[in-house]
Design goal:
two-stranded antiparallel sheet, alpha/beta, Rossmann fold
């Protein structure tokens, strides 16, 4: 892989040839699960799709785990999705909620929404 230790390939939430190619080229898989009503249905379908391609020896990547995203722990669906991920038979990454805390030398960029950037320019 040259000089790269990790390469992250992000694909859309669909069962396309592009997604299949990305998974076939991967050594490890992390599946993001959005904290929405339809996410668990999509997750089950996606895992069945991966398993079918494993049987055909197209995908050999190891599933590192599920990662709950866009979690709003104040909402019932957010709590339910995180709990469902924790109780699934698959490994998972622990999810914490809340906005990132800025460091003392950072300021909010009004032109970029919630993106943080250093308050002093780089040399």
């Amino acid at each position: 892989m040259g000089n790269y230790r990790y390469i992250v390939i992000g694909t859309g939430p669909n069962l396309s040839h592009l997604t299949l190619g990305a998974l076939a080229a991967s050594d490890h898989i992390i599946i993001p699960v959005s904290a929405t009503v339809w996410s668990t249905t999509g997750l089950r379908k996606f895992i069945r799709w991966i398993d079918a391609h494993r049987e055909d020896e197209v995908i050999g990547a190891e599933l590192l785990g599920l990662l709950a995203t866009m979690v709003m722990s104040r909402t019932r669906i957010g709590r339910d999705v995180v709990e469902g991920v924790r109780q699934s038979p698959y490994p998972y990454f622990e999810t914490t909620s809340g906005l990132p805390s800025p460091s003392p030398n950072a300021r909010l960029s009004s032109s970029c929404g919630r993106a943080w950037r250093p308050s002093t320019p780089a040399p």
